[in-house]
Each structure stands twice: as structure tokens, then as C-alpha cells.
Design a protein that fits this description.
By secondary structure, the protein is an alpha+beta fold. It has 20 helices and twelve strands.
């Protein structure tokens, strides 16, 4: 009988791995007991016999029983899909923070400080990890470091020292020790195996395979391949970006490209994401100001994945959306949440979009960024960075042709975020001119919160009423529609995927 440490039924896992079904990529991992490795559902290797496999919810659970990640399918690069997601909000928040490196690197915080930030005791947080993840907080953080380092060893030509820095290790010696202890190879030996296996590495003129200790002031260039589970409605997402793009801050060069500049914790750069439909992935080129920015690389890649919404499980989401009878025949498969780089940027976009058309809001946004964004030459590309909260707080905003009250709301938002950078988005409601719609929009696009049904949005209201009126006519019944009661019922039905319903409604013709 097949050992099973997975919430997905064994028979479903069996069929998915034999079919190499990309829709299950990252939802489970196959441990091959005869070879001692674990694989993704899409692994191209010859499928093992069922009696020799064991299924796991996560690669960490497979690693905990002594299995090693497959060199061919690289489980570290699978789209995220954790069994505990949606079960415990505190645990999910903790995992998100750990994944972007709060427990590693020179600015690492302690587990006690992480617990305080989450509003729970360290003992309770440790219990959540033991019960929900099956390992300790420290072990989980270290595993994420190693898998990120392994991904960079596979896909880039960053030096071993640079990769150790990017993965959050404070010394190359410690990086080598932990890597060898867990994966039974040193990083250098592992890279040689990758090269000998003819796995293509990204070429760039600023990277070396040799270890280097002198920080570089030159821009850092690297490329990674980021996977998703199909379907993916890329054309709709591309069009959404196109209409709202800010010149020199965002660009769409061809039908399969989206790029933009960014700033994360003082690190500036830009990325170009190129959709590869055949591989269910994006080839992402990232350029950082200099080598010091590598300490934020994990957070930057995590944010790119969030902005593109690569970890969404569209099967699960659309199964819930199909519960709405009037929408069943109109759902666009693979429609995701196109995010903004920060909650502050999303808040500014929302304020500028109050009571105006999308075209007018985009025009105002371009004027704002052109007037107050910082122009930078990063490598060989001139970009504009989105204005900081401090700059917006003190801006005259004379360039913007809009009501003075909205200008004051922008100033006040900038001042509030400057003074309270860690405040919850809901706290923005204390700002004059910031209402529930603006806060909800910032949650949905800035924080990628999955359960935001924008009932107060005029387009959403119009399309909900039209859908249900048409549905009632088909049923030959036309009761009066109480919009408030109806949307409460709808929100309850589609939870926790209200944001995806909002985008479905926005995309209805």
C-alpha cells in the first residue's frame, strides 16, 4: 500500500503524475523510495511503479523523511501550494514573512520578534508550525533558504558567495556547511553536477562561477524561470496591464511581455517577465542596482510571483465560482489577480481612480509618477521609480487636474504611510478622503488579498444586477433584487475567492 502524507487522494495523485498534469504542479510531490528522490507531478523522468512511491503535501515533508529533490524537475521551482494555506491565518502570515527572509540575513529578527509582530506568543507560533507544517520554525526557514539557493545554482551564474548572500546566509562557510549537511553536496559540487547534466545556465556578463568576496558596484543581472499551474488567462492580464501602464515605470514589449521598475527596502531595479505558454512559466530577467541588492532578492522574486499571481490554484478557485449559476457559462478560465508592487501604490491608484474613467485615472497616474517619481539609469535602461510616500506627502500635486479634496487625500495617505509604515491597510480609513472602496482596492491589488468582492464598485454592481436579472428571466421569475442582500449571499458563497469574482465581473463583455 502506498504511503500517503497528502490531503489529495492517492488515486488522484497517481493519475496526475502519470499524465504529468501541470494543473497539479506544486499541489503534491511524489517521493520515489527506490531512488531516494522526490519529484513534481510534471517530472519528465520515467514514471516509477506505484508500490515504490509516497505522496507528500509539500517538498519539506518529503525532505523530512530523507528524500532529495530531483535534479530534472527541480521541486524547488514548483508554484507554491501549501496544505496549510487558508487553514490558519496566523500561520500563513508567518510563512509569508519567513519566505521573504525576515529570519535570515544581516537584518534578521528573532522568532520572539516574529511572534510579537504576528500578535501571538512564540510558544503558540511554534505549535502552529509543528501541527500545520510538521517541522520547527527554524527548520522551515533554513529549508526555504536552501531551496532558494538551489534554484539560483540551477538557473543563474551568480557566484557561490553571491548566492549565499541572496539566500540569507551571513557567511559562505555557514552556507557550505548547511547545504552539505542537508543535500550531501557542497554548493560548488552541486553546480558542477548541474553543468555536467547540460542544464542551461543563464548567461550574463556580470556573474562568475568562481567565489568572490569583493562586493560589486556594477548592476547585477540574472534570470529565473517561475512556474504556474494552468490555466492562465494571460491575454486578459496583459490587456489589464496595458490600459493602466505608467510610461517608463511599466512596459509591455510584445504580446507575452510585462516589465516594471521597483524598489524594495531601499533596493532598486527592474524586471522583465516573458510568458512561456508551452512550459506554463515566465522567464523573468531581473536587474538590480548592485550586489548589495542580493540580500533582498528572495523578497523581490516573491513579490514578482505575487504581482503575476503565479501561485493561484485556478482549479480550486473556479470550482467555487461555478457555484454561482448566473456566472457559470461566462467564467474566463485562468483569470488571475494582477497586482501592484506595493499597497501604497495600489492606494494611490485607487484615490486617482475615484469617480473617473480608467483612461482618466491612468492619465493622472502617469502625470503623478512623471512629476514625482525618481528617474534612474539602472544598467543600460532608464526607468522611473514609483514616488515614495514621503514625496507624495509633501507634493503640491498642481500637475493633476482633479478635485482639491482628492489631492489632500493623496497627501494625507503619503503622510500616514510615512509615519506608520507597518500599519494595517484598514487603518487608512481614519484618513479623510479614504473610504472602504479605496481600502478594499488596496487589499486586492496591493496585498493580493483573495477575498475582496468590490460590491461598491459601479461596474461590479451593474454586472451583478444584469446577470441576476437575466437569470431570473430565464427561470421565468422576476423578483425585485435587493442588491445589498444579494451581494452578501454571493460573497458568502464564493469566499475565500471574492477578488477573483471581482475580476471576472470586470472582464464580462
Amino acid at each position: 500500500m502506498v504511503d500517503h502524507d497528502c490531503t489529495i487522494a492517492s488515486e488522484i495523485c497517481r493519475k496526475a503524475r502519470l499524465a504529468r498534469d501541470a494543473r497539479f504542479d506544486g499541489q503534491f510531490f511524489t517521493g520515489v523510495l527506490t531512488t531516494g528522490i522526490y519529484c513534481r507531478s510534471i517530472c519528465p523522468a520515467v514514471s516509477p511503479k506505484e508500490e515504490n512511491v509516497r505522496y507528500f503535501d509539500s517538498p519539506l515533508k518529503a525532505a523530512n523523511v530523507g528524500l532529495r529533490p530531483c535534479l530534472r524537475c527541480r521541486p524547488d521551482s514548483a508554484p507554491g501550494s501549501f496544505a496549510w494555506k487558508g487553514v490558519a491565518t496566523t500561520l500563513e502570515r508567518a510563512i509569508s514573512l519567513i519566505d521573504v527572509g525576515v529570519l535570515t540575513g544581516a537584518d534578521a529578527i528573532s522568532i520572539e520578534q516574529l511572534s510579537e509582530r504576528l500578535g501571538v506568543s512564540s510558544r503558540y507560533l511554534r505549535k502552529l508550525f509543528t501541527e500545520g507544517v510538521g517541522t520547527s520554525i527554524k527548520q522551515y526557514a533554513q529549508y526555504r533558504q536552501l531551496m532558494f539557493a538551489k534554484q539560483l545554482l540551477h538557473q543563474t551564474e551568480l557566484s557561490i558567495t553571491q548566492i549565499g548572500l541572496a539566500a540569507g546566509f551571513n557567511s559562505i562557510r555557514r552556507f557550505n556547511e548547511v547545504f552539505k549537511q542537508t543535500l550531501k553536496l557542497t554548493p560548488s559540487t552541486f553546480r558542477k553536477q548541474v553543468i555536467s547534466a547540460n542544464i542551461k545556465l543563464t548567461k550574463n556578463s556580470h556573474s562568475k562561477i568562481n567565489e568572490v568576496d569583493v562586493p560589486s558596484v556594477e548592476p547585477i543581472k540574472l534570470s529565473v524561470e517561475l512556474y504556474y499551474r494552468p490555466p492562465f488567462a494571460w491575454q486578459q492580464q496583459h490587456d489589464f496591464y496595458q490600459v493602466r501602464a505608467v510610461s517608463n515605470m511599466e512596459w509591455l514589449e510584445g504580446d507575452n511581455n510585462y516589465g516594471r521598475s521597483f524598489t524594495t527596502n531601499g533596493v532598486s531595479g527592474y524586471f522583465d517577465a516573458n510568458h512561456n505558454n508551452a512550459r506554463n512559466s515566465f522567464n523573468v530577467d531581473i536587474v538590480l542596482d548592485n550586489e548589495q541588492g542580493l540580500s533582498e532578492l528572495s523578497a523581490i522574486i516573491a513579490n514578482i510571483k505575487r504581482v503575476l499571481d503565479l501561485d493561484a490554484n485556478m482549479q480550486a478557485i473556479e470550482q467555487v465560482l461555478h457555484l454561482l449559476a448566473p456566472l457559470q457559462q461566462k467564467i474566463i478560465p485562468g483569470l488571475r489577480l494582477p497586482g501592484t508592487w506595493s499597497t501604497f501604490e495600489a492606494g494611490c491608484r485607487a484615490v486617482l481612480g475615484q469617480q473617473v474613467s480608467i483612461i482618466q485615472a491612468s492619465k493622472l497616474l502617469n502625470q503623478l509618477v512623471l512629476a514625482y517619481g525618481e528617474k534612474r539609469m539602472i544598467s543600460d535602461k532608464e526607468v522611473i521609480l514609483f514616488p515614495t510616500a514621503e514625496v507624495i506627502a509633501n507634493a503640491s500635486l498642481d500637475e493633476l487636474k482633479m478635485p482639491g479634496a482628492r489631492k489632500l487625500a493623496l497627501n494625507a495617505l503619503g503622510e500616514f504611510v510615512t509615519q506608520n509604515p507597518a500599519a494595517d491597510i484598514n487603518d487608512w480609513l481614519s484618513i479623510k478622503g479614504i473610504g472602504p472602496w479605496t481600502v478594499a482596492y488596496a487589499h486586492m491589488r496591493g496585498a493580493s488579498s483573495p477575498d475582496v468582492l468590490l460590491c461598491g464598485d459601479l461596474v461590479v454592481k451593474k454586472r451583478v444586477l444584469t446577470l441576476y436579472q437575466q437569470h431570473n428571466e430565464v427561470l421565468e421569475s422576476a423578483p425585485a433584487i435587493d442588491y445589498s442582500a444579494l451581494t452578501k449571499e454571493i460573497a458568502s458563497t464564493v469566499s475565500p475567492w471574492g477578488s477573483y469574482l471581482t475580476f471576472q465581473l470586470w472582464n464580462l463583455s
